[in-house]
Amino acid sequence: MSSTHSRKVAVITGASQGIGAGLVEAYRKLGHAVVATSRTIAPSGDADLLTVQGDIADPATAERVVAAAVERFGRVDTLVNNAGLFVAKPFTDYTEDDYAAVTGVNLAGFFRITQPAVERMLVQGGGHIVNITTSLVDSADSRVPSVLASLTKGGLQSATKSLAIEYATRGIRVNAVSPGTIKTPMHPEETHAALAALHPVGRMGEQSDVVDAVLYLENAPFVTGEILHVDGGMSAGH
């Protein structure tokens, strides 16, 4: 059993579709074992891919995911906090339910799974965390009113730097990828033209753009505390 424990293990949240599913595939291609979680994720036929169903906003899910990784594969080398809710509404239209849902996934979900993952990484002597944020954090846009995204993903961006510095001498790197609007199942086809226009380059990003950015950070031992913008120029200006 111990021979399998030398292999790297990635934990990916929000892993059933879109960018998350792309990350699962990419880390398996790298040779990592993967623990993938989301509310709707299907069981896996791949012995090196463990799926865990659950709502990341529920503390029990976070504990279960990290425990499952350690039990099945013996370690946690990378955690990609990809799960995220995005609700764009005028500020005064947000409901209590909107607030609870978005903060539950984007803030509490991040916090609850990252704590046990870091504890595990400290035992092993290192690891890597990548948080997926949004370029709206740096570059608010009146066409996309989204205070809850800024509140939660902005918190995540600041936490990325804070954790990177806290653990810099202990072998744990912490980075973020800050995308513009990416073509995923979240965005219906008829919205694509309007969404493309939000980017200085005039088009939306592809899932592979975000996956490639995460893989760059994965293989960049001198990079920590970085917010890598993959946003067609959005954060630079309009």
Quick recap:
The termini are far apart. The protein has one domain: 3-Layer(aba) Sandwich (Rossmann fold).
Secondary structure topology:
Layout: E1 9-13, H1 18-29, E2 33-38, E3 49-53, H2 59-73, E4 78-81, H3 96-124, E5 127-132, H4 147-166, E6 172-179, H5 192-196, H6 207-218, E7 227-230
Parallel strand pairs: 1-2, 1-4, 2-3, 4-5, 5-6, 6-7
Helix pairs in contact: 1-6, 2-3, 3-4
How is this structure best described in words?
The chain is α/β, with parallel strands linked by helices and 238 residues long. The protein has a single domain, classed as Rossmann fold, CATH 3.40.50. 39% of the residues lie in helices and 16% in strands. It has helices at 18-29, 59-73, 96-124, 147-166, 192-196, 207-218, and strands at residues 9-13, 33-38, 49-53, 78-81, 127-132, 172-179, 227-230. A seven-stranded parallel sheet has the order 3-2-1-4-5-6-7, with helices on both faces.
Features:
39% helix, alpha/beta, 238 residues, single chain, Rossmann fold
CATH fold annotation:
Rossmann fold
Number of continuous helical runs: 6
The CATH superfamily title? NAD(P)-binding Rossmann-like Domain
Strands of the widest sheet, in order across it, are 3-2-1-4-5-6-7
**Oligomer category:** single chain
SSE order, one letter for each helix or strand:
EHEEHEHEHEHHE
- The biggest beta sheet, please? 7 strands, parallel
The separation of the N and C termini measures 54 Å
User: How much helical structure, as a percent, in the residues?
Assistant: 25-40%
Q: How many structural domains?
A: 1
User: What is the strand tally?
Assistant: 7
| CA-atom Rg in angstroms | 17 Å
* Structural class assignment: alpha/beta
Strand content: 15-25%
Known CATH architecture: 3-Layer(aba) Sandwich
Backbone shape: globular
* Unreliable sequence segments: none
CATH class: Alpha Beta
State mean pLDDT (0 to 100 scale).
Answer: 95
